C-alpha cells in the first residue's frame, strides 16, 4: 500500500518513470475503480429503494454519474500530464489547477442533481408546489454562485477584486438590464406574497389576462388561457396590476331572477317560500352562506323574484350541474303553484269609440 501511495504521488509530481507503463496502469486502474463504483451504486440503489425516505434515493442518483466521470477524467488528466512531460518541454503546472476545477465542478454537479432529485421526489406529494420550486431555484443559484467563486479563486483571481468589480459592474448591468432585474424581483415578490401558485386560475381586470398558471419563472410567468394558448407575462407586470385568484374562492354564487306573470301575483309569496325551502334542503347548497329568495322588483312585464345563494363546490363543471338542478326545481315549483314564467308582452289600450273600417273587396272580374 505504501508503494502504491508513493507511486501515485510521483505521478502528480511529474516524476519520470516508464511513462507508457504508467499511462496504461492508470487506465486499468480507472476501469477497475469504475467497475467497483458501479457495483457499489447498484447495491446502494437497492438499499435505498427499500426505504420510505426520498433523501437516500436522491443522493445515490445524484452522485452516480458525476463520480463516474471523475473516475475517468482524473486519471486522464494525469496521463495527459505524463505524456506532455515525456514528449515535450511544455510545463504541466496548469494541470493541477485543472484537477482542482474538476473536483469543484463535480461537487457542484452533485449538489445540483441532488436538489433536482429532492424536488422531483417532493413535488408529487406537496400541496404548495410554487414554494418548493422557488426554494429549489434559489438553492441552485446559491450553489452555482459559490461554485463559480471557488473556481475563480482556484484560477488565481482575487475574490476581493472580483467582488469590487462586481459592485461597479453590477451598477452598470443594473442600469442596462433594469427590466430583467424588475422581472427577477417581481418573481421574488410572487414567491414571498404568493398571490397565486402553479395550477391556480387567475385573471386581471386591468389586462386581458385569464387562465391557469403553468410556471412561475425568474423572468416571466406562463399562463395557459382557457382556449389553450400560452400567455407569457413578465413578472414585473404583476406589481402594477390587480390580480384576482378565483381558485381560492370558498363557494360559487348562484344569482338568478325568476320572472312571474302579473296575473300570478297572488302566489308570488308562496313560490318564493317554496324556492327557499328547496334551497335549504338541497344537498349541494351551502345554507351557512348568505341566502336570499324574495320578491325583488316590478318588471315591465313580470314580477321578479331574486334567488341568491351559494354552492358548496367551487369546481366549475360541478357548479354548472348544481345550478341546472336548482333552476329545473324552480321550474317545477312555479308550475306546481299554478303560475308560469313571464315573457315580454305589450298591452294595447284602445278607448271606447266607434271605429269604422271601410274595406273594399278587390274586383276579381
Automatic annotation (TrEMBL):
> Which residue ranges does UniProt annotate as crossing the membrane?
20-40, 67-84, 90-112, 132-151, 157-177
**Where found, per UniProt?**
Cell membrane
Topology versus the membrane: Multi-pass membrane protein
Q: Which GO terms describe its cellular component?
A: plasma membrane
Q: Name one Pfam family in it.
A: MS_channel_1st
Give start-end ranges for the coiled-coil region(s): none
Keywords from the named record: Cell membrane, Membrane, Transmembrane, Transmembrane helix
Question: Domain named Mechanosensitive ion channel MscS: which ranges?
Answer: 179-248
> Would you identify the family this protein belongs to, as annotated?
Belongs to the MscS (TC 1.A.23) family.
Name of the protein this chain belongs to:
Mechanosensitive ion channel protein MscS
Q: Which organism is it from?
A: Photobacterium indicum
